[in-house]
Amino acid sequence: MPIDFYYLLISPPCRAVMLTAEAVGVKLNMKELDIFKGEQMKPEFVALNPQHCIPTLVDGDFVIWESRPTCSYLASKYGKDDSLFPNDPRASAEVERLNYFDMGTLFHRFGEYVFPVMFSGEKEFNPDKLERLQEALGWLDGFLSGNKFAVGDNITIADHTLLATVSTMKEANVDLSKHANILAWLEKCKAEVPGYETNQKGAEDWGKFFKSRCNL
Fold this sequence. Notes:
Blueprint: E1 3-7, H1 12-24, E2 28-32, H2 43-48, E3 56-59, E4 62-65, H3 67-78, H4 89-119, H5 127-144, H6 157-171, H7 180-192, H8 196-213
């Protein structure tokens, strides 16, 4: 039975799930949903997901949304081993900590910085919000110190979520030059993460959308 995946390529959370699916070898039945045209409000989609958000994944009679638990589900159910989402309690806690950091701090602060100009009519970016974003990037840079990937030497779903976010920031002209560990990690991801090219295409499309919305 095909696994349906409702998504929009420019969405970093959608791309995180796509990276995990690529890593475990699951072929998704891609169903693009243009939220800017209100397609998420169609009755048939709301029946699947009453929160009408993307990404949404449908695997048989199981429907899940929110990207990070979706990545966990795919890795746990379809991974050939536990390397993407470790069974070891400490290692899995580290993966989840970084996923929550991405959701609640890194991606959140990025949104606080760019979304008011993109969607709320503000004319200038707030320097205080940029400082908070750079603080979060500094924390991530510290987390990556001494590691090849986000959690040790193996690619995990934390790399998928963080890569989708950070690659998008880069295309939005967020300065990463002070974060040497992040830049080195991005190069490792480029070389070793399956599906990197598709993620990069989505990030570049997001960057074009960002610049058009902000008249850059």
